[in-house]
Design brief:
This protein is an all-alpha fold. It has one domain. The protein has 9 helices and no strands. The radius of gyration is 31 Å and the shape is elongated.
């Protein structure tokens, strides 16, 4: 039922917009006025107040795309110098030095590698789980800003639609004042507001969606490369020699159960 009402409203709005456009065109032709080309700024002003939030969305979109392109770069997530340092530490068996270097130079690669080094004393499975968990954490952190591009892509057409509806209301009010032939200029201005607002919302939304999907896929590809390099470092790792060893400076809180300290203590049920 709601879908049927929405469809009827959409058809009515489209018919009304087409009618207004045809009416303005016919009135302009009857008066013989030549169409005056407008500058870009005049066209933007014609869109009304909705152009202000749309301008803000467009600036935010450009910033998010540039920032996302930089953050999702493999060279930034895994600098070549940091990768070579890690390889040298693993070749020499200096895992404490590798951990300290990762802690002093945080980046996506070092964060994932450090998480794996902390868990080498608990075995291969624990180390691999820690690497995967840290990689998922990095992806979530990196994806947070990219998700705002999707929000912009959804919101800007809605903002443009608000301007469209307001412009149509003004156009109908202009028609009610004295007819299309007597208010041609005012009617044309309101129709221009309708079209400019709609087009502006779409112009911002389309590159926002394109940037979101492109950067999301690029981020996933970069993270896969980082995971592969970390996996290569831990290949053939001597876990049997590192059993029970704690690499890192994190404090360990778990201790033996309190009831094992005294011989007369009872084990709780």
């Amino acid at each position: 039922m709601k879908s049927s009402r929405f469809t009827r409203f959409t058809r009515l709005a489209s018919t009304a917009g087409l009618f207004l456009l045809m009416t303005a065109s016919m009135a302009s032709a009857a008066e013989g006025n030549a169409l005056e080309e407008k500058s870009l700024w005049q066209t933007i002003v014609l869109g009304g107040w909705v152009m202000i939030p749309l301008a803000g969305f467009s600036i935010a979109m450009l910033w998010l795309i540039i920032d996302g392109a930089m953050r999702s770069s493999v060279k930034r997530m895994m600098p070549e110098t940091e990768l070579e340092k890690a390889r040298n530490f693993f070749r020499s068996g200096d895992y404490v030095g590798a951990y300290q270097t990762c802690a002093d130079n945080p980046c996506t690669f070092n964060n994932i590698l450090r998480s794996g080094l902390v868990n080498v004393g608990d075995g291969k499975e624990a180390t691999e789980d820690a690497v995967l968990a840290e990689a998922a954490k990095e992806q979530s952190r990196q994806s947070t800003r990219l998700s705002y591009l999707s929000v912009i892509g959804v919101c800007t057409p809605m903002v443009g639609l608000v301007g469209t509806v307001i412009g149509m209301i003004k156009a109908f009010a202009s028609l009610g004042k004295g007819g299309a032939t007597q208010n041609t200029g005012e009617l044309s201005a309101h129709i221009g507001e309708v079209l400019v607002a709609t087009a502006s919302g779409l112009i911002v939304a389309i590159p926002a969606f394109m940037g979101f999907y492109f950067l999301r896929n690029r981020l996933q590809g970069s993270l896969h490369e980082v995971e592969n390099e970390v996996g290569n470092l831990f290949r053939k790792f001597p876990y049997h020699l590192a059993e029970g060893v704690h690499v890192g400076d994190q404090e360990l809180y778990a201790n033996a159960p309190a009831w094992t300290e005294g011989a007369g203590d009872e084990v709780p049920a």
